[in-house]
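In this section we turn from sequence analysis to structure. A common task in structural bioinformatics is to predict how a protein folds when a small molecule is present, because the ligand can shape the pocket around it. The inputs are simple: the amino acid sequence and a SMILES string for the ligand, here zinc ion. Study the lines below before reading on.
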Amino acid sequence: MTQISEVTHSKEPRPPINWPGALVLLITPLAALILLPLYLWSHDISMAAWIVFVIFVMWTGLGITAGYHRLWAHRTYQATWIVQFMLMIGGTLGVQNSILFWASGHRTHHQHVDDVDHDPYSAKRGFWYSHMGWMLRNYPSGESNYKNAPDLLNDPLVMFQHNYYIPLVLLTNIAMPALIGWAVGDIWGVLLMAGLVRLVMSHHFTFFINSLAHMFGTQPYTDENTARDNPWLAFLTWGEGYHNYHHIFQYDYRNGVKWWQFDPTKWLILGLSQVGLTYNLKRIPTLTILHAEVAMKFKRAEANISTAVSSYGHDMQHDMELIRHRFKQEYEAFSTTLNEWKLLKEQAFLLKKAEVSQKIQDADLRLKVDFHLIEQRLQAHGERLEIALRGIQFVKKVG
Ligand SMILES: [Zn+2]
Ligand SMILES: [Zn+2]
């Protein structure tokens, strides 16, 4: 769980208030809380307002996830100009500062994750700070010189949005819904729902990734940072809830990496690639992912066995020693698999380097089969470990 480390910061004077950020983040929810009930008192939300609301919710959400996050902050794929433009407009609708500021800060978050002095929204500084406190004052950890974003500084679309950010925010968030509202005959309904209510919702759902997704959920791939996989948050954030995976493999265009994990952003990016609108989608190889998962299971099993052995009485010792022995054997087998995998990767590398030869296709096929066998073996290690872990739980219960 997160520890609040404000203690070390409490002696320093509080940084000055970030007025533009604070006003937007405090006034918009207050306005929504007052205006929505007042409006509902005397009006129904028209069907047109609902439809524009849903479209704007999707547009904003995907502008942030597929655009700000996976395209610009992490460069997990490339997109044609029209896709970039649509994502830029969606992201601007989100009112989360410019692509340049957001992506640069986010790269710092990944580089210094959890560091209370350098991660702009370190979850170690508590829920409130990581959710939105960090935007209310000009904290030194949130300052950016864009040194980590030379690619974005050279991107004309990104710089256009950065230079005209305020007019673009007003155009997208006020003029656009007002115009659409006028066209469908419900200016105030569309402004309220697709403008204000949508903005407040999309703000807090995104902020949950910095706060809740670093507090609640599982850690199947790594426990070296606070990021968690949380399917509930994935539902609210177009797939961004698989944050533990994302923090270990940030260059993958998928966050929910298993085919069944709810990640509409990855489906959108993949779908667009089928019609040539996105390309160069980056994926971490399945074996690498599986390795991280199995290694994490070993780590967990080892910790479990150590605590169980030290805290159980004499009669349990025998059972625990047996489990420990089996675990050791499994670990040795796992290391062998890893070594063979390493050799195989070297072979594959040499094969790729070698000039075209007749036998290359045969060799390539053989390698594919061998890689597949390694994958199956890794999978089996994972499954046997699950069983061993259940064994430990059983011994603990009986004890
Ligand atoms: Zn994070
Ligand atoms: Zn990220």
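The chain has two domains: 6-279, 286-398. As an exercise, try to locate the residues that line the zinc ion site and compare them with your own expectations.
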